[in-house]
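User: Here's a chain of 172 residues. Predict its fold as tokens.
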Amino acid sequence: TQREYFTMGSTLDPVIEQTPCDIIVVKAGKQESREPIRRILFPSKGHSPHVKLAIDVVTLIARQHDAEVTILHVKQEGSSDTDAWKFTQALAGQLPGIKSSVKLLDSGDIAGSIVNESRNHDIVVIGATTEGIFQQLLFGAIPQKIASNCSKTVLMVKKDLGLQSWFRRWFS
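Assistant: Prediction complete.
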């Protein structure tokens, strides 16, 4: 059903929704590998509490594995190159001491572009979206489409926002 496409599963959904703490959900890649992580894809659209937590996760993984991080921003029609460049450079500045690069793509298919770019990386770390309940369920449509279609391991990060999160889920 359509609901199953946009949720993590009947067991995991209530845990994600009701857990009063930050959450990282790991969708394992199709090929289990004991190879070290050398390239991390970090797609991001904008500033949010989830992005801040994702930066912490990316930093930990990159330092542990001496990995390079690609910060990816998929620009939608009408968005400014300058704004996208400033945003991604600001994210790179939050990864001190970590090898990082920035990549901007123009595409109407955000999830498809990220999945395509993931082929050149070992792991994908993405923050939840901040859409309201009527636009998304739990992590958001884009992160869940990425997790569903990506053959690499995907870490989806969601910061607990307490009452603010509950209110936003139902009324935004």
